[in-house]
Amino acid sequence: MDFKIESDKRNELLSRREIQFTLTYDGATPSRMQIIGKLCALLNTKEPQVVLDSLKSNFGKTVVTGKARVYDTEDAKKKTERPYLSARGMPKPKEEGAA
Q1: Residue 5: is its pLDDT beyond 60?
Q2: Closest C-alpha to 18, from 32, 8, 6, 3
């Protein structure tokens, strides 16, 4: 996977960075967790502070364009992000007693 950051803007009011990126990959389309992991490694942040807003890809192309928001703290993220966006792409907690 090759990341190219198209734009990186700082939003002081909401304590976050707003990032637009282009991702080039080989093989299957990467999952949201893989994209978040790669983005965190690239930006030197923690996974709970990152929210993927949108991902767009075209049929037959191995390029994904997307938007992400990187918060300074988890509390800042909880104050402004909608819960369904924060939960999207995260692994589901395992249920107890499930066989």
Answers
A1: yes
A2: 8
Helix or strand or coil: residue 21?
Answer: strand
Q: Which one-letter amino acid corresponds to residue 35?
A: I
Here the tokens at position 42 are 């690239």
Q: Which helix (H) or strand (E) element contains residue 35? A: helix 32-43
pLDDT of residue 86: 81
CA separation for the pair 88, 66 (Å, rounded): 15
What's the residue count for the chain? 99
pTM score of the predicted model: 0.83
62 CB neighbour count, 10 Å cutoff: 14
3-state DSSP assignment of residue 48: helix
For residues 77 and 86, the answer to whether their CB atoms sit within 8 Å is yes
Residue 30 has what DSSP assignment? P
For residues 34 and 25, the answer to whether their CB atoms sit within 8 Å is no
